[in-house]
Amino acid sequence: MSLQTFEIKVQDIYHDPNNARKHDSKNLAAIKGSLVKFGQQKPIVIDKKNIVLAGNGTLEAAKELGWEHITVVRSTLEGYEAMAYALADNRSSELAEWDQEQLGSQLVQLQEIDYDIADIGFPSTDEWDSDLRAPVDGIEENDAPLKSIIKVYCEQPNKDEAEQAIKEALAHLDGVTVET
Questions:
Q1: What local confidence, expressed as pLDDT, does residue 172 receive?
Q2: How far is 86 from 16, CA to CA, in rounded Å?
Q3: What is the dihedral of CA 17, 48, 89, 16, to 10 degrees?
Q4: Around Cβ 93, how many Cβ atoms within 10 Å?
Q5: Does residue 80 share a domain with residue 105?
């Protein structure tokens, strides 16, 4: 079975009135930023009544951007199967975890080339401690020196400079040895 995509007028498809996933302004801003920057890279999934099963946030963002057409794929799922699919689509991405090292590295690389990571829903690295919390997940609140070291690492333009900054920061902590 191959999926057949087609374009449809935005006004002819409808948000799922029972959608269990809500999209706040921060989330919609990220979706809009992605749509503006990259265009629509995956279709919205609709049922035979043109109700969105997957992609309600994309539809809302497209409407806010004034799009007239959007690419969709029509599902044959109905009833409880359609409901279960909609929940599974939202839940599956929620269950994934970030590889913190890769995330930090990629965001720093993008910032090195002056790429505005806010366009893809991420705050700048200097805001990670309070907003993203990616580099400091799992660190106790009272472990400020370690948080500072991680922040220093994330703010460095390349890995060598980051490693040097960490060594310098660790040198000021009592009882910490640095292996090279």
A1: 62
A2: 9
A3: -10
A4: 7
A5: no
Distance between CA atoms of 73 and 65, rounded to whole angstroms?
A: 21
In a domain, residue 132? The reply is yes
Name the more confident of 167 and 6.
6
Looking at 95, 121, 145, which one is the last position of a domain? 95
3-class DSSP assignment, residue 165: helix
pTM, rounded to two decimals: 0.67
For residue 36, give both structure tokens: 């503006």
Residue 177 lies in a domain: no
Domain encompassing residue 86:
5-95
Same domain, 15 and 86: yes
The pLDDT score that the predictor gives to residue 121 is 80
Q: In the chain, how many domains are there?
A: 2
3-state helix, strand, coil in the chain (%, to 5): 50, 10, 40
